[in-house]
Design a protein that fits this description.
149 residues, mainly alpha, single chain, binds zinc ion
Length: 149
């Protein structure tokens, strides 16, 4: 679920924020949050994919949902590109957000193939948009509130 990814991304950002010397904490969290929902751009049914349907459609056609765009390989491509242009702190922000998305997706029945193109799959039993998903959202939200105060 979009909201669960977003709040878990923010939680991951807050968890790692102390490890970096960050000129702008809010921007760091925003970058982490953006990349925590970004991988679903490979599905035009997703919230982020729906915002850029033509791009999302092409990515889905090329890579499928939870293919290359949901792989560590793609995570490293984003990391490398961001590192080259903006430096290590912002590259870390992208990877923390991206990694948080892959981690949560790996708990769903469809799972992820983080080592794409290899077929090794990691999956679980938590379905999106179910009571467990909503419960996780509120647990992560409570943890974010706890970390802020
Ligand atoms: Zn996903």
């Amino acid at each position: 679920m979009f909201k669960t990814h977003l709040i878990f991304g923010i939680l991951a950002g807050l968890f790692f924020i102390e490890a970096f010397t960050i000129p702008n904490s809010l921007l760091f969290l925003a970058v982490v949050a953006f990349f925590s929902v970004f991988p679903d751009i490979d599905s035009y049914h997703s919230k982020i994919g729906g915002k850029v349907k033509p791009i999302s459609f092409i990515l889905n056609l090329l890579f499928g949902h939870r293919g290359f765009i949901h792989s560590l390989l793609f995570g490293f491509v984003i990391y490398g590109g961001t590192y080259f242009i903006f430096g290590s702190t912002w590259a870390a922000a992208t990877f923390i957000g991206f990694g948080s998305h892959l981690l949560l997706d790996s708990f769903t029945p469809d799972g992820t193939r983080p080592l794409f193109p290899f077929r090794t799959q990691i999956n679980g039993v938590v379905r999106s948009n179910t009571i467990v998903d909503y419960a996780l959202f509120f647990v992560f939200l409570a943890a974010v509130v706890w970390m802020l105060f």
